[in-house]
């Protein structure tokens, strides 16, 4: 369109004025030029943990798949059909979010607005044209199309649409057919697990395959080890129906700035997060480990869930200001989505680190996050685990230079499908080693840890986490500043013994 072509030529000053973010840029602090988290392209040649990835021009790229714009609005139901009004729940234009994502070091992001009665038409006719303009104005950030899906029978989920010519029509089809609040009057038949399975199967059968990732999965849970809207059974049934579509949940939910305004991290008002992470992730041997113990490829992410910045009375950080999801990929829509689908992901809060590699090596074979190293069963064998992490190059969004105080290596056995769909524990999962600064050595810009798993004779997975705190396990969160309680988590690497 002519407007888009002209928009691509405007100056930075005009861009800020167009986005309407002059005040919010001041509130958020000075521009940080990408912060500490830009993809490490220049010095990746000597990044030995990524040699295979380097050959494909893949590097760690920070992003956020859960960001709200002014199209998370409200509906006036005194009219028929209901009239949509922008800016009621989230207030920023799509391009504002893209500018701030770039400012805080993200190279990809996704607009995920709430649905509602006939919102599929709002997305198609109003929000999508704004996304196209934002892509022109902020080309440095790959901006995915999709929404925060009002998921049948569950809490919200990311619905990420692949980047292609008919992406707008694809979202319109899925939202209009399956979003539980799109019909008007509301149709109770849309809010069932059967409808969720129907939705996932429809997505699975599309030529351009979307992604579905759970949001704030324990926000409605009333206590530790119990669940609310989202249950183990529903995760298993959905993943069984569409294992390449339904691939994970937020390990660290958004709304992390809540304590800065007297609220709860993540908006978890019933039972809190632990170190900013949902209990399904933070509990060693808990829900996430139960899924991994079945051999499921089920991944965690970290997002902002940005609606209103905390300096304006909200509970949110800007995209990338606090939480980041790193994907090992090229700066390409399809490859970033492939990384999310296949677990080439790690997450951090507060820019505690800027790069993380986890590899397993044995019998001349090597696997990284999301991958599997296959061993011969003829002889029990050792598996060498290598962990590489890189501290941030500069200060984080709070002006701090955080330091890692401990790294934990966590392993669990893969024992196959659970007969009990409600199972939420993996008793084999444990922290097998803890490492402090005296246990890692510096190699270039990175720190390296090596550990040997002895006599591995069964299918296993390994994952790591690290923290700026001295907590042996992440404690339940109160009103402490989120900047004082930082963690990173990897996704797992798998060991298969045949």
Runs in which pLDDT lies below 50 for 5 or more consecutive residues are 1-55
Q: Which range best describes the helical content: under 10%, 10-25%, 25-40%, 40-55%, 55-70% or over 70%?
A: 10-25%
Number of strands: 22
Estimate nothing, just give the exact number of structural domains: 1
Radius of gyration: 22 Å
Largest sheet: 15 strands, mixed
Here the CATH topology equals: TIM Barrel
CATH superfamily: Metal-dependent hydrolases
User: Which architecture per CATH?
Assistant: Alpha-Beta Barrel
What is the average per-residue confidence, as pLDDT, rounded to a whole number?
A: 91
- The count of helical stretches stands at 12
Secondary structure category? alpha+beta
**CATH class group:** Alpha Beta
Termini, distance in Å?
56 Å
Form type: globular
Q: Which percent range describes the beta-strand content?
A: 25-35%
Would you give an account of this structure?
This protein is α+β, with helices and mostly antiparallel strands and 498 residues long. It has one domain: Metal-dependent hydrolases (TIM Barrel, Alpha-Beta Barrel). It is built from twelve helices and 22 strands. The protein has helices spanning 2-7, 12-19, 22-28, 51-54, 94-103, 119-137, 167-178, 193-204, 232-241, 279-282, 287-292, 333-342; strands at 59-67, 74-76, 83-85, 108-111, 142-149, 157-161, 211-214, 246-252, 299-302, 323-329, 345-349, 355-362, 365-368, 372-375, 381-390, 406-413, 430-435, 441-443, 446-456, 460-467, 487-490, 493-497. The protein has a 15-stranded mixed beta sheet that branches. A five-stranded antiparallel beta sheet has the order 13-12-15-19-18, with no helix packed on it. The chain is globular, with a radius of gyration of 22 Å. Residues 1-55 have low confidence and may be disordered.
